[in-house]
């Protein structure tokens, strides 16, 4: 199986198709996104319980965080694969239901391969982050340690105690953002190859690296569009939620939660659908047989 290079504007096609994803089988697509969100809460809730019960020191908290991360990978990696399979079934007119997101957990569902891919990619991300911070993040580890120490004290924090950002933080964020875009491409292609392409973990990682390097330009265009689009969306939502909260507060303070929380959850649900849609269409255009779409084939 080979990977394809796409046109510079292909990223816009992935985004548009991701936005339109829920129209074909809304019940399955949005229902699966809701299940995914609930699954993602399990490790976080467990971490809160362990922290509350054991009240560990810094080293203990690190151990708990590491164990919870492993649990999160074991739960979420198969769920990602299940979601991609659900989208693929829906796109090809096959029966698809929200519960299909759990299919990888069944015998023969490929959960171990998906977990293996997620685990290797997480380790690679940690190693890359360590190298980048060691080379470009002078002072960042000390700054972060001070922030963690302040957060563990509890109570109100004096603003004067908050340490200044280290020099070169802008460069570190810039380099980290570029690496993040590349890693997101490897994640998308790799998960698609394991879940849908039935590739081994090693082959999926190789396909992810090669496919990402072939498509850096459309990925960069997509990242820029998402960044500025997110800023505009955040501004619009801030104004809208502010107006809703102000009107609701005139009636009763509790009404603010009743109206604002559902809006927040609906936005979060839609973001998950679009994210997985972009992930799926990116994988499909880069990895499936047939010619890659031209720029003039971008569906608006």
Notes on the structure:
The protein is an all-alpha fold and 300 residues long. The protein has one domain. Helix content is 75%, strand content 0%. The chain has 9 helices and no strands. The longest helix is centred in the C-terminal third of the chain and has 36 residues. The radius of gyration is 21 Å and the shape is globular. The C terminus is likely disordered.
Q: Which secondary structure elements does this structure contain, and how are they paired or packed?
A:
Elements: H1 10-19, H2 26-54, H3 58-91, H4 111-136, H5 140-153, H6 169-195, H7 201-214, H8 216-251, H9 253-287
Helix pairs in contact: 1-8, 1-9, 2-3, 2-9, 3-4, 3-6, 3-9, 4-6, 4-7, 6-7, 6-9, 8-9
Number of helices: 9
Radius of gyration: 21 Å
Unreliable residue stretches: 291-300
How many E strands? 0
Q: Portion of residues in helices?
A: over 70%
First-residue to last-residue Cα separation: 29 Å
In terms of quaternary structure, the protein is single chain
Beta-strand percentage?
under 5%
Number of domains: 1
Structural class: mainly alpha
Q: So what's the overall shape? A: globular
The average pLDDT is: 87
The SSE string, one letter per element, is: HHHHHHHHH
Largest sheet: none
